[in-house]
Amino acid sequence: MSTMTSLSIADFESRYPDVFNPSIFKRFMPLIIGAGVVLYLVYCWWFFSIGTVLATGQWQRAEIYARDWISYAIRTTVRMSPEGTTITYPRFSELGDNPKPDWAIQQGNEVTVTFGAGKSLQISPTQVVAKRSGEELLVLIEADGAKPQGSLPEWATLKEDQVTVNFGFAGTADIIPERVVVSRRFLGWANFVFDTASPFWNKSISEVASMIVSGERIKPEMSNAALAFDNIWYNSSWQHGDVWTKLLQTIVMAFVGTLLATLVSFPLAFIAARNIMPNFFANQITKRFFDFLRSVDMLIWALFFTRAFGPGPLAGISAIFFTDTGTLGKVYSETLENIDDKQREGVKSVGAAPVNVQRYGVLPQVLPVFASQALYFWESNTRSATIIGAVGAGGIGLKLWEAMRTNTNWHNVAYMVVLILAVIFIFDGISNALRSRLMGKQH
Amino acid sequence: MSRANSTELTPDGIEIERHWQELAGRRRAYSWLIGIGLLVAVSGSLWFANESNAGKFFDRLPHFFDFAGDLIPRDGWEVWRALFDLPSPYFDGSLKFDYPEGRVYVFGAFYIPEYFYKMLETLNIAIISTLVGAFFGFLLCFLAAKNLVKSKLIRFFARRYMEILRAFPEIVIAGFFAAILSLGPIPAMFAVGIHTVGALGKLFFEVVENADMKADEGLRAVGANWFERVGFGIVPQVMPNFMSYALLRLEINVRASTIIGAVGGGGIGEELRLSIGRGHQAKTLAIILLLLATIIAVDQFSAWLRRRLIGNQAFAFGGKQS
């Protein structure tokens, strides 16, 4: 193509005037939309007072809570008296009834707590020495408070009579007259398999295996394998049994709700489709019925069925069933209205009964689409079933919400989130595989 | 073509007929198997659901319409009074009838009734999270598209990232931010917005992958860099589809922010939950009416706009995307 001359440009311009000189409205459309969005964002900033909320938010908590997802802290108190020092643990410590951790060692009158390489705390009846990355802090314990000697390093703070030493992720220690409160943090989930009350607690895998296979019965009424399973299932801090049951409820809610919705909306969609049921009133009534089911939010259905059936998965199933009958019905009837009429005509022309016209003229066209849509909704409901559970409609939602409200059980939240993510990914995979088989390689 | 004619078939024909019967029989057997499998799964699931429910299905069935009692006010006009926060003649000092504390005065004696204000709050949560989600989804989607990014690694991470954002339970995001910012609409915004990034990002990159690459080719021929190619070659042709998906998402987000509201995110969802829990018939009905009207209005508006943007294609796949 040769270079354009001004003549050819003028020629183009005269042939396509609306490309070269669009109306002002069209020309500034993106700008108008952009300005509108910016104005709206400013309005929202004011409406929700986002600035104030973000500024007053306790962001230091974010770090603490996020850390709790993947780690746990063990608390211990070292009491100091003129007679000596003693280590005490809380009654329900993660370390069991008789803890002997290797990071807190008592030697005579002195206790040494280590927080990893180069970080330690030496506690004796009259003084505490804290070491971190080569720096050292001596704190003398006097009757009216802890007295740090020399200048405070960055990692220590003095508040009235209390010195707080920060060892980063590994933990903190509050030095108060007569006692040091230590919080020592470890990566991982504590006592995930067996809790401290279990006879299998704190044993290696091979030990547990040999106990199960060849050990003597710990409890006479059940085998060791049954006991081990029982201990895991009723683990007091992780509640595996309860969590898995609730998770199964969520899965069941999505599965049964979607399946029932599919079964009910399938025949109704034929009534709603105007090319199949040539009765205006029947079409309109069914369509408005679908709209009603769809527009009354899943939340409203969930709240009502919770009243009707009591909290639990039945309420969730019903809520999903009602909402999705509406949505699937709408989708199905639209699919039916868009079918190719030639097949129906063919079947009709050989004198088939009306039922057979639908069976052989319509169904083969729409069935893969219908099944694919049903799978899609199943997948999406597996996600939404979590959240309606939180209003009492059964499933893991409520358990998640309760675990979060306490603000101390973030590790349980992490556990449930991992399970939910796994379930969603597995079901996504199944649904995608089935759908691409049904629809050919379109997805 | 009756069965009697089959006697006149050639041996080859009989062979074909036999084979066809065999195939059809196998298909029928598969259908039956799937049907029976589903039946077993459903009955097992229903039994499990019934067992673990607080009330049993058949015990509760006679009480099924009890909730209607939560909906029937003592006087039809009560609903309108509740909706517009007008003084009720039955006022007895409780919150069941009048609730002037929730009024939002705009100027002078003119006020917005509480429910309208809360509905606006929920709508705003939905709109702003859709806007922000669409913005980040827009930025991310080009990194996940096969036709624009050659590096498998970048695509892999972009896609997995969006998948995690999409699958992460909204309620956990809301709960986490509620612990930091205290309960209210902003955690709800985060929750709905983050989910929207993942959901829209996926739909967006599928649109981008189906885009016509001729414009891109032309731009590459004249030496445009990646950003110019995306900006002038891809964005103009995918924009209507993007807008259509964002509007579809807005419909879903209105519902989602209502639900998040009910579990502590503020807005109309919370009012509805409280009202049902306290057995305030007229107020419950008023909220449901308001919610129904809003959802229908948003759906209609979005449908109209989508039809204008991309024509009837917007309705080919229907319904909800998550």
How would you classify the helix and strand content of chain A by structural class? alpha+beta
Number of strands of chain A: 12
Mean pLDDT of chain B: 85
Output the radius of gyration of chain B: 28 Å
Would you tell me the overall average pLDDT of chain A?
Answer: 86
CATH architectural name of the largest domain in chain B? Orthogonal Bundle
Span from first to last CA of chain A?
Answer: 40 Å
Describe the protein.
The complex is a heterodimer of chains A (443) and B (322). With 443 residues, chain A is an alpha+beta fold. The model of chain A has no long low-confidence stretch (mean pLDDT 86). Chain A folds into three domains: 17-57; 73-187, no CATH class; 240-438, MetI-like (MetI-like fold), CATH 1.10.3720.10. Chain A has helices at residues 6-15, 17-20, 24-27, 29-47, 50-56, 59-70, 205-214, 224-233, 240-272, 280-295, 298-309, 313-337, 341-349, 354-393, 396-405, 410-438; strands at residues 71-81, 84-88, 104-107, 110-114, 120-123, 127-132, 135-142, 145-149, 156-159, 162-166, 171-176, 179-187. Chain A is built from 16 helices and twelve strands. Chain B is mainly alpha-helical and 322 residues long. Chain B folds into two domains: 3-51; 114-315, Orthogonal Bundle (MetI-like fold), CATH 1.10.3720. In chain B, 72% of the residues lie in helices and 2% in strands. Chain B has helices at 11-51, 57-60, 66-69, 76-84, 114-144, 152-167, 170-181, 185-209, 214-221, 226-265, 268-278, 281-310; strands at residues 104-107, 110-112. A two-stranded antiparallel sheet of chain B has the order 1-2. The longest helix of chain B has 41 residues, at 11-51. The radius of gyration of chain B is 28 Å and the shape is extended. The model of chain B is unreliable at 317-322 (pLDDT under 50). The interface between A and B is large, with 76 and 69 residues.
